[in-house]
TrEMBL record:
Sequence intervals crossing the membrane: 154-171, 177-193
UniProt organism field: Sutterella wadsworthensis 2_1_59BFAA
InterPro entries reported in the protein's UniProt record: HMA_dom_sf
Pfam families: HMA_2 (PF19991)
GO molecular function, one term: metal ion binding
Protein name as it appears in the record: HMA domain-containing protein
UniProtKB keywords: Membrane, Transmembrane, Transmembrane helix
Length: 200
C-alpha cells in the first residue's frame, strides 16, 4: 500500500487532498464506508471521495486535531479498510487465476506483455533516477523538501520544453531539430504515461 504522505496532493490548514490508487474506481457503497470511517475521527468536519480520479478531500477543525495526527489516523484506517478489501478480492479472484490459458497465441501475448512491463519498469526507474539527480542540482530547496515532487516538476518542465523546441524548430524550418526534439518529447511523454498509468 502507498505511504499516505506520498499521496498528499494538497495540504492547507484544516484541509487536505489525497490521491490513493486504492480509491480509484471504488464503488459508491465502499466510498460511503470509507467516508463514514473517516468522519468518526475527532475534529473531522467533512469527507469527499472522487473514485473517478481516486481522490479524497478531508477537512477538519484545527483546534481539535493537527494535520500530522489526522494523516496518521487516516493511514491506519486505510490499512484496515484496504487490507479487508484485498482479502475479499483475493478470495473472489482465486478461481479465475486457476484457469489455464490454452491458446498458444494468448501465452505469447502474455509473455510479450510481461517483457514490455519489465522494460518499461526499468525505463521508469532510470528516468526517475536521472531527473532526481538533476533536481538535486537544479532545484535544491524543493528537492530537500520533497525529492519525488522536485523530480516530477523537472521532468514535466523538460517535457514541455522539448515540445516547445520541436514546435519552434518546425516554425523556422529546422526539420532535424524538430525531429530530435519531437523524439525527446515523445520519450518523456511515454515515461510520464508509464508513471501515471494507474490514474489514467
Amino acid at each position: 500500500m502507498a505511504d499516505i504522505r506520498d499521496c498528499v496532493r494538497s495540504l492547507l490548514p484544516g484541509r487536505a487532498r489525497l490521491r490513493h490508487p486504492m480509491l480509484h474506481g471504488l464503488e459508491a457503497e465502499s466510498c460511503r464506508e470509507v467516508a463514514g470511517m473517516l468522519e468518526t475521527i475527532p475534529g473531522v468536519t467533512g469527507v469527499s471521495i472522487n473514485p473517478r480520479v481516486g481522490s479524497l478531500l478531508i477537512t477538519w477543525n484545527e483546534a481539535e486535531t493537527t494535520a500530522e495526527t489526522l494523516l496518521e489516523t487516516v493511514e491506519g484506517y486505510a490499512a484496515i479498510f484496504f487490507a479487508a478489501g484485498a482479502e475479499d478480492e483475493a478470495g473472489a479472484a482465486a478461481p479465475a487465476d486457476e484457469k489455464e490459458t490454452s491458446c498458444t497465441a494468448c501465452r505469447a501475448v502474455e509473455r510479450a506483455a510481461e517483457a514490455a512491463g519489465s522494460v518499461l519498469g526499468r525505463i521508469e526507474s532510470a528516468g526517475v533516477g536521472t531527473f532526481g539527480a538533476a533536481a538535486r542540482t537544479l532545484m535544491p530547496e524543493t528537492s530537500r523538501r520533497n525529492p519525488k515532487r522536485a523530480a516530477r516538476i523537472l521532468q514535466n518542465r523538460t517535457m514541455l520544453g522539448a515540445l516547445a523546441l520541436s514546435i519552434g524548430a518546425l516554425g523556422v524550418r529546422q526539420t532535424g531539430l524538430h525531429l530530435w526534439a519531437g523524439v525527446a518529447f515523445m520519450a518523456l511523454l511515454a515515461l510520464h504515461l508509464q508513471q501515471h498509468r494507474r490514474v489514467l
